[in-house]
């Protein structure tokens, strides 16, 4: 149950972080490649292309990453009395 909870937390945090990174990457793309602002094209490009792609990649990375961390076996405790 702990693993499932951590995977869901990783998924949610990854979705949010990926969306933020996707918007940043989209804004960088628009400014570097001088995308047209005609009728909001550049805004639609950022929010309908880069943000969902960033969310998907971030969500998967967060879920897999925290799932792997949660699935690791704990280190064996050292014996204080030899």
How far is the first residue's CA from the last residue's CA?
A: 35 Å
Indicate the radius of gyration in whole angstroms.
20 Å
Low-confidence stretches: none
Question: Roughly what fraction of the amino acids lie in strands?
Answer: under 5%
Oligomeric state of this protein = single chain
Mean pLDDT: 92
Largest sheet: none
Key words describing this protein structure:
mainly alpha; 2 helices
Structure description:
The chain is mostly helical and 82 residues long. It has a domain at 13-67. The chain is built from two helices and no strands. The chain has helices at residues 2-32, 41-71. Helix 1 runs antiparallel to helix 2 (41-71). The radius of gyration is 20 Å and the shape is elongated. The mean pLDDT is 92.
Topology of this structure?
Layout: H1 2-32, H2 41-71
Helix pairs in contact: 1-2
Summarize the structure.
With 82 residues, the protein is mostly helical. It contains two helices and no strands. It has helices spanning 2-32, 41-71.
